[in-house]
Amino acid sequence: MCGIIGYSGHRPAVPVVIEGLHHLEYRGYDSAGVASVQCSDFEIVRAKGKLSALEDELSRRPPSHATTGMGHTRWATHGEPAVRNAHPHESNDGTLAIVHNGIIENYLEIKADLEAKGYVFSSETDTEVLVNLVQECRRSEPDLLKAFAKALRLAKGAYAVCLMSREKPGEFLAARMSAPLIMGIGTGEFFVASDIPAFLPYTRQVVFLEDGELARVDCQGYQIYAIKDLSPVSHEVMTIEWDMQSAQKGGYRHFMLKEIFEQPRVVADGLAGRVARGSGAVHLPELDALPVPERLHVVACGTSYHAGLWGRCLIEQWAGIPVQVEIASEFRYREKLLLGPRDMVLVISQSGETADTLAALRIAKEQGVPLLGLCNVVGSSIAREADSVVFTQAGPEISVASTKAMCSQMLMLALMALAWSARKGLTDEAFRAGIVDGLLDLPKKLEEALPGMHARARELSRKYSGAKNFFYLGRGHCFPLALEGALKLKELSYIHAEGYASGEMKHGPIALIDRSFPTFAIALNDDLLPKVKSNMVEIQARQGRVIALANEGCDLGADDVWIVPDAGKPLSAFFVLPALQLFSYETSDYLGKDVDQPRNLAKSVTVE
Ligand code: F6R
């Protein structure tokens, strides 16, 4: 939530900062702002709404020539979206300005103390409290670095912050605690940002700051210190392998559409080097580092949670490992967490920064169980804190609604199930080779199927976009897909949608069914089809309209049938998923909603 960027170098800073904010806007878009020092005074420009509003505001002003600056794009936590709550925030004495991603949990206590000392606040944010706390700390500790570290030691919660002072206009300080912050190392220019694409046009050399670290940055270089005692810290400079093109729309109307259409490539990349046609062997050294678990606890949020539910079916069936899948925000607050010595926790997160998932990982770590991560973002907090990480290699996912990430997570979960199954000797080589061949066929089949699926999604979205409610039903491994279909529809089109296990309808939800309440039924050609059919008939008997997502040759009697390729159970899921994504995409676009940046959401949920 929220994106921050700081720059110090040889170019005019404001355009660099604005360009960076464009790549961070997926993290929040309630307001945006920039700060630089001009003629010994802060020039702070802020605007409510998307970055374009800030750009309009800047276009009415003379260009800034400052070569150090910082910026922010906000996802509101404390205080409504409004200019007064937009960052950067200034200290009362006007000497300091700050941008912040995260939440200072004890800000009300600090604010009360500061108010008692005469400080006044013009926003409702925790961030304005933090910058004034730094000002206050300078009364006893005039050195800014020391005062900043002292203030950070008093603040509890999560933050990635960038602080500038009027007296040193060519320098900024940056710090992180439980929120992402990466430094970009250029030639005569240095960056910090919440995500790498913000500075990728300028450098691929990065340093991942760790929690509890603080950096001093100017155009000559940087120094990193531990916040606790200001002892110097050094980190290896790493090189980012992917390029800017992977973080751009590439001719598609929206990032979401591009990312849906990238799924054949995502599957191909995920399989490369891990499997070979005709062989049941799976090369996953990340798993070999850990013992085969007797019980697996999968912990994740949102779409990643749905991927975990899907993976459970395969891991239990093929590898004979009992799996519990839990929402991270629940797992982390379990009254009594009973993890056994041979259990394993698998955390799934596209961003690798989701606050609840990260907290769940840390709680599991305290119990000493092996921790496996399934992450997309290399260098993310979860990736760094897990004992071993399987990377999904999906490339940057920019659209706020997750699509290709789920496909890549499902793929890796299938490979894990096969690998564990082989290690336990539970399936034979021929069975596993059959699955591997099926997976290797997916990229081509998906590539061929996607354009037709897109056209069908468009037709159906036009027919059903007037509905105010939707059910998504599935059984077995299609139940998690139903949950995901409903999540995609509600978050993108703001149509109320519920995912249900088909068999659960008769226990209450079916009371809602009438002609105006359509149902998406995932009715694939597998052993559960007769059961799903019965559930569809029950809905139709109550005048409910049914769209059946089915395979060729199934006689379903639905109001609309959408045929998707049959790759057998469970691999047909790789066709169901993009069908559901495309239906939500088209519905949202047809209704004129903001597909890539739906209201009230943000890509990386780094707050509780
Ligand atoms: C939905 C969506 C979210 C994320 C969730 C977890 O489209 O994107 O539900 O899946 O916030 O995010 P990660 O996977 O980054 O932990």
Account of the 3D structure:
The protein has 608 residues and is an alpha/beta fold. The protein has two domains: 3-248, Aminohydrolase, N-terminal nucleophile (Ntn) domain (Glutamine Phosphoribosylpyrophosphate, subunit 1, domain 1), CATH 3.60.20; 259-590, Glucose-6-phosphate isomerase like protein, domain 1 (Rossmann fold). β2 (31-38) and β3 (41-48) form a beta hairpin. α3 packs across α4, α7 (263-271) packs antiparallel against α14 (429-464) and α15 (478-493) packs parallel to α17. The longest helix is centred in the C-terminal third of the chain and has 36 residues, at 429-464. The chain is globular, with a radius of gyration of 25 Å. The structure holds fructose -6-phosphate.
Summed over residues and divided by their number, the pLDDT gives a mean of 94
Helical amount: 25-40%
Give the N-to-C terminal Cα separation: 10 Å
At the first level of CATH, the class of the largest domain is: Alpha Beta
Low-pLDDT runs of 5+ residues are: none
Main sheet: strands, sense, barrel: 8 strands, antiparallel
Q: Kindly report the CATH topology of the largest domain.
A: Rossmann fold
Rounded radius of gyration (Å): 25 Å
Distinct small-molecule ligands in the complex: fructose -6-phosphate
Coarse shape: globular
Count of distinct strands: 25
